[in-house]
Specification:
The protein is an all-alpha fold. Helices cover 71% and strands 0% of the residues.
């Protein structure tokens, strides 16, 4: 019996490896701008390495119908089908020409957007950056479409700036090092939106802070320091300044600027009793920043001595900071010829980085382990490869 060419229902739920972050790449942006369903389907299949049959199972169509859609021989005329396909692919409905009812009510759209940005930040800080990306990218796409249509109200542009920077920072958690430029690109685009608003130093300082940190992670150290210095200069309150200084210290250390690193940490230390402690601005996180900066500026002996001190937890820190700290401490222990202690720290870091889906930290573990701890390096490499396969990277 011949298989029907048209759709079949009900459609299954998306497969576990279906991810949203790939829609945030420059390549995807070019494809989505065409609004060509065939091109969008082909791109989705290429990224996820799906056959037409597998894509059909995701969408609820058979292979023949998927092929016809990709070649432009068939089209989805009804709104329900387009909305369902957008949902299965993780796209906002407007990409396939469907008006989202929520966008027609300005106040409802803003309330929804504000809630999404707040919840995404909570998810990222809780070690669920992938979920943050899944929430933020559709919001960013909807807001950008609204601005392109001429709805450039101040509150919309401000929300777009915040959503873009949140997306960039979340991507900076879930992407491996070779893709971190994508995260920095989104934080840069956030800065573009914020500058359209004119004089809003708190917003611009916060975005410069995040953009500078993503530039550092992408190893664009000089630009990172410049952005972070600007963030500190614009910071309107002591708490805003305290939020920017640790990131400037990290970037100064990565650049190898010992004088800047030391002066920034002196000011940071002086604010510990006056500024509110956050997941970044606290003795625990600053201990890791100091250790890494000492290593980067050629002061291994001072780092080895400092590693013996136990930082005091004064507030809740993001789960990824525990991984970051374990890796840095392991690097210091290896310099002190404590292979056992280093291996123990890195073993824990591998497990945590895998659970929290932190490919960049797994790459740091591999470099830290090197040839001295081949078993740890192998375990981190295996975890990274599994993650890359799941991300279809």
């Amino acid at each position: 019996m011949t298989q029907p060419v048209g759709p079949r229902f009900p459609a299954p739920q998306p497969a576990a490896r279906h991810v949203v972050w790939h829609w945030a790449t420059p390549q995807a942006e070019t494809v989505l701008a065409t609004r060509d369903l065939g091109a969008i389907l082909r791109f989705h299949r290429a990224v996820h390495r799906l056959s037409q049959t597998e894509l059909g199972e995701l969408l609820g169509y058979d292979k023949t119908y998927v092929s016809a859609l990709e070649l432009g021989k068939r089209s989805l005329e009804d709104v329900g089908s387009r909305r369902r396909v957008a949902e299965r692919l993780g796209l906002p409905p407007h990409v396939l020409g469907v008006t989202d009812v929520a966008d027609t009510d300005h106040r409802a759209m803003l309330q929804f957007g504000e809630s999404t940005v707040r919840l995404a930040e909570i998810a990222r800080q809780s070690g669920h950056a992938s979920e943050a990306v899944a929430e933020l990218w559709p919001l960013v796409a909807r807001l950008e479409a609204r601005v392109e249509d001429g709805h450039s109200e101040r509150d919309v542009v401000r929300l777009l700036a915040r959503a873009r920077v949140g997306l960039g920072v979340a991507l900076g958690n879930v992407l491996p090092e070779e893709r971190l430029a994508t995260a920095a690109r989104w934080t840069a685009r956030s800065l573009e939106a914020a500058r359209r608003l004119g004089d809003d130093p708190a917003l611009i300082s916060g975005i410069l802070r995040m953009h500078g940190n993503e530039l550092r992670k992408a190893r664009i150290h000089g630009a990172a320091v410049e952005r972070l210095r600007h963030a500190v200069a614009l910071a309107p309150t002591v708490d805003d300044r305290a939020a920017a200084l640790p990131l400037l210290a990290r970037a100064a250390g990565a650049l190898g600027d010992q004088d800047l690193f030391d002066s920034v940490l002196r000011e940071t230390d002086s604010l510990l009793d006056t500024a509110g402690h956050t997941s970044l601005f606290n003795p625990f996180s600053l201990h890791e920043i100091r250790l890494r900066g000492l290593l980067a500026t050629g002061r291994a002996r001072a780092a080895i001595q400092l590693a013996e001190e136990q930082p005091v937890l004064t507030t809740t820190v993001a789960p990824q900071w525990r991984v970051i700290e374990l890796i840095t401490v392991a690097q210091v222990r290896l310099l002190g010829d404590d292979r056992t202690g280093a291996a123990e720290a890195l073993d824990v870091a591998v497990g945590e980085a895998a659970v929290q889906r932190l490919p960049h930290q797994l790459q740091r573990i591999m470099r830290a382990a090197g040839q001295r701890l081949p078993d740890v390096q192998g375990a981190a490499g295996d975890a990274l490869n599994r993650m890359r396969q799941e991300m279809a990277a």
